[in-house]
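Renewal narrative, Specific Aim 1. Our central claim is that a sequence can be written position by position from structural information alone. The example that follows is taken directly from our test logs and has not been curated for this report. It begins with the structure tokens describing the chain, in the order in which they were read.
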């Protein structure tokens, strides 16, 4: 699953809730033999002499569209006399181990990173650890920053007009320009609000039906109760026993403890203490839910859904 997670220092709020957790995540001991921490991004390859990026042969549909958009954007800006270097940051499946679908991979991951919530505050210099300073910097970097800094105010204004996007009252206003044209080439003509509302309603109904099927499954209900009982014995509070929610429950409880100003506001000792506590909870959660997850994921594959939580 290719994901765009641009939240500094926190586990992303958007999760595949039916998947229990996103598959949506260094200095101080980051070794190459360990699993990659949550949410590492891979920068796109260097543009060719013609100014285009080669689309990876194994790219999924969403990633392919990002490449098409960036290449179209570069061609359009170049035609208007400006420099634009196409760049795509795609997210690999570094988050996948945390969800527990693959027990062995999850165990290895959680023993070092927990749920991936506080890892970025401990492994701050590892660009592959979601929320680390190095990861944040990598995703904020603009390959054209030096070029843009060299432009005069008048040239910058012309550049922004050609690009076609303005920030107004905190919102991105997309007007005529290269960005709109590039998006249409990648994603097709912009949909009307009525189309968007209709598709959203249809997807909501489909997701609700999938959730109801999973939450009403007798085997999953029984295993979720067993999961909850194990957590209670481990001293972990249980706030839900719904099959579609219990797998993420402990992770979100830990997520609720992250500081409002971000995990990077923590000092080294506090960050390590919180990660150590998180790892303990993540390991207990994994063991308690092992039988449940083994039954849940195959059934979720027949009733997939995504939602926004957190």
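The sequence written for that structure reads:
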């Amino acid at each position: 699953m290719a994901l765009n997670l641009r939240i500094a220092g926190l586990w992303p709020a958007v999760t595949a809730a039916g998947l229990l957790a996103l598959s949506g995540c260094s200095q101080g001991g980051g070794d190459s033999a360990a699993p990659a921490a949550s949410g590492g991004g891979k920068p796109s390859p260097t543009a060719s002499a013609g100014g285009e990026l080669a689309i990876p042969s194994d790219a999924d549909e969403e990633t392919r569209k990002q490449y098409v958009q960036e290449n179209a954007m570069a061609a359009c800006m170049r035609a208007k006399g400006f420099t634009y270097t196409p760049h795509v940051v795609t997210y690999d499946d570094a988050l996948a181990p945390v969800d527990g679908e693959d027990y062995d991979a999850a165990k290895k991951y959680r023993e070092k990173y927990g749920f991936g919530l506080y890892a970025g505050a401990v492994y701050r210099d590892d660009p592959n650890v979601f929320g680390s300073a190095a990861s944040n910097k990598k995703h904020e970097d603009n390959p054209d920053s030096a070029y843009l800094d060299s432009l005069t105010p008048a040239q910058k204004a012309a550049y922004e007009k050609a690009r076609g996007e303005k920030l107004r009252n905190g919102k991105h206003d997309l007007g005529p320009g290269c960005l709109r044209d590039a998006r249409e080439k990648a994603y097709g003509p912009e949909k009307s609000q009525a189309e968007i509302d209709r598709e959203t309603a249809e997807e909501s109904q489909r997701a609700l039906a999938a959730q109801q099927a999973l939450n009403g499954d007798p085997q999953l209900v029984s295993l979720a109760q067993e999961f909850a009982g194990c957590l209670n014995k481990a001293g972990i509070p249980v706030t839900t026993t719904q099959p579609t929610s219990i797998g993420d429950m402990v992770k979100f409880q830990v997520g609720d403890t992250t500081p409002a100003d971000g995990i990077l506001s923590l000092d080294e000792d506090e960050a390590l203490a919180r990660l150590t506590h998180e790892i303990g909870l993540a390991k207990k959660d994994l063991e308690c839910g092992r039988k449940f997850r083994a039954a849940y994921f195959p059934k979720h594959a027949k009733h997939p859904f995504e939602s926004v939580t957190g």
